[in-house]
Q: What sequence folds into this?
């Protein structure tokens, strides 16, 4: 029996909570302005051999949503070049182009398209860079950590010029080769005093800064209010504000839409009709109509496929 026929005849996997979603599914299909907003890592992607991949169930779900002529907005902490290099070539095979994108915690918004040459490119429609005083505040925090002897720092920063990509600063030149090897996605790694970082950050528009402290947890415990990771964007900018901006531009009604995420930055979950929490994280977000917890990306993919298929709603 051909593989496609076997898949068509195979019993549908159990989908936790589907029996409670029939009414929402009917409304989603009937509402032409409904869509999908999804995080990537941990929600729609899986790690395999050190690579982030689109699992088959998500691919099936994306194709079903695409056939239903509904947009799928990617809302991610990733920077545009990362999405284009690692995710978009596979994603577009299932969801088509353009790919609506909210990048870097809502700080840069646009779409991934193809140039005449066939190469992928990012087209910005809005951006909310950090203000100089906000950057100085971050630098003051880094300075405080250095003065306290915490120098296992990595400061990732993302210019508005998406073609520049990801850049990393470390205060210890001896760590330069280690950082280069550990973060191959970086376009540039610099090392040196804080003044070097200050000059880089204040020389151009920066959309997001990510501070990583690569120190043992017992050392971090000595510093109150210090977190291993911190993301900094312009005041009032987050993944929900980004989703709202792009949804308005696309004519998508978030209150009728599905949103899926797996972590605290996924603030857009409070602004969608159906909030889908993927995985085990304890999140306070609730959908405007319903909230559903699913175990993994495969289950989320199954939800998208079933949601988009009218004759499957009672199965």
A:
């Amino acid at each position: 029996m051909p593989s496609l026929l076997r898949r068509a005849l195979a019993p549908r996997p159990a989908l936790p909570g589907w029996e409670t979603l029939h009414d929402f599914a009917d409304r989603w299909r009937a509402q032409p302005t409904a869509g999908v907003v999804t995080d990537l890592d941990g929600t729609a992607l899986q790690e395999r051999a050190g690579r982030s991949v689109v699992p088959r169930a998500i691919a099936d779900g994306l194709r079903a949503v695409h056939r239903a002529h509904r947009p799928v907005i990617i809302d991610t902490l990733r920077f545009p070049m990362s999405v284009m290099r690692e995710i978009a070539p596979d994603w577009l095979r299932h969801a088509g182009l353009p790919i609506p994108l909210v990048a870097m915690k809502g700080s840069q918004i646009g779409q991934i398209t193809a140039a005449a040459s066939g190469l992928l490119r990012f087209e910005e429609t809005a951006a909310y860079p950090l203000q100089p005083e906000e950057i100085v505040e971050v630098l003051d925090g880094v300075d405080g950590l250095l003065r306290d002897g915490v120098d296992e720092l990595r400061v990732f920063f993302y210019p508005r010029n998406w073609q520049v990509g990801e850049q990393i600063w470390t205060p210890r030149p001896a760590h330069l080769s280690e950082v280069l090897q550990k973060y191959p996605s970086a376009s540039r790694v610099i090392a040196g005093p804080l003044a070097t970082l200050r000059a880089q950050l204040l020389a151009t528009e920066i959309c997001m800064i990510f501070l990583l402290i690569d120190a043992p947890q017992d050392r971090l415990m000595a510093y109150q209010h210090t977190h291993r990771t911190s993301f900094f964007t312009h005041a009032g900018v987050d993944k929900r504000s980004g989703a709202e901006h792009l949804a308005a531009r696309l004519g998508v009604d978030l209150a009728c839409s599905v949103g899926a995420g797996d972590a605290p930055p996924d603030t857009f979950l409070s602004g969608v009709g159906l909030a889908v929490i993927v995985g085990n994280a304890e999140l306070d977000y609730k959908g405007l109509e319903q909230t559903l917890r699913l175990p993994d990306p495969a289950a989320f993919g199954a939800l998208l496929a079933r949601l988009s298929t009218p004759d499957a709603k009672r199965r």
Notes: Residues 3-11, 221-226 have pLDDT under 50 and may be disordered.
